[in-house]
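Q: What would this chain look like folded?
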Amino acid sequence: MRIYLAGPEVFLPDALEIAAAKKRLCAAYGLEGVFPLDPPPAAPPAERPYWMRIYLGNEAHIRSCGALIANLTPFRGPSADPGTVFELGFMRALGRPVLGYTNAGADFLDRTRAFLGPAARRRADGGWEDAEGLGLEDFGLTDNLMIDGAIAAAGGVLERHDAEGDRWRDLTAFARCVARLAGGGG
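A: My prediction, written as structure tokens:
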């Protein structure tokens, strides 16, 4: 089975090395990892802007895969990368298995409060809000409820792991997702 490897690792300077490590883990379970930077199944039209060719190529990758594993480690804030979340939702809408992992094990509320600092305040009802009075999610989930919900509704797993070193290169939780997808537990 081909597995789309969604995540913000594409922005790292050694993205291809991380992709290779993830693909090796997939191969150990008889799965084929497909990284967003891989050549797409069909080349998007050359007259399209570069950013659109990237989008079309990644969409083609997703459609060509039987499942998706998303790196939902917080990216540039308390939540997952929005592009990765889109890809997860796209695969979920196709009715295919989706799994996720994060290398930041704290609940979404705790990460959001830490990110907002003093701007996060208690409401009279005991909940939390930001400086604009918008409520903060408090469900004990990994991220926004739509992300956790999509994975749960698909029968997937969302692995949490507190990376001790480099959170972008720690593949502990990713490996558990691969094992789970391959039917080997994890």
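Strands lie at 2-6, 32-34, 67-71, 98-102, 121-122, 128-129, 158-160.
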